[in-house]
Amino acid sequence: MRPERLEILIRALRARVGHGDEWILWLEGRRLPPDLEGLAASGANPPPEVLERGTVWPRSVLTPIRCSSPTLDALAGAVSNHALPEIADHVHVTDAGGWLLSLYDVGGDDPPSMSPRLPAEFRRALEPTAPQ
What we know:
Elements: H1 3-16, E1 24-29, E2 61-66, H2 69-81, H3 84-87, E3 90-95, E4 98-103, E5 113-114, H4 120-125
Antiparallel strand pairs: 1-2, 1-3, 3-4, 4-5
Helix pairs in contact: 1-2
């Protein structure tokens, strides 16, 4: 996932705020840098069992980020101030019903894996040719 792909995902998530969705963005990789630790959602449910981690060994850290305007805005700013591996190696999105999306390998070009439960407009927002 190139930096712009992460930025597109954050914008798409930001656009869903206020639609009644309670989505969690899971950053998989190392611990967040100290200046971003405050973004981690306290009291978030553990990741669903169906969440397929992108890193088997060493065991990666899954950091939950509640998809709210302030946290997504802060994360968007962090993308330009940190190397992507400092933020995440892989990214997942879940809701109360389980898995919604996975983007594996920061820096890669593979498309995201998406649940059919994702709204069509959200899917379109993630297409590489979607207007910005």
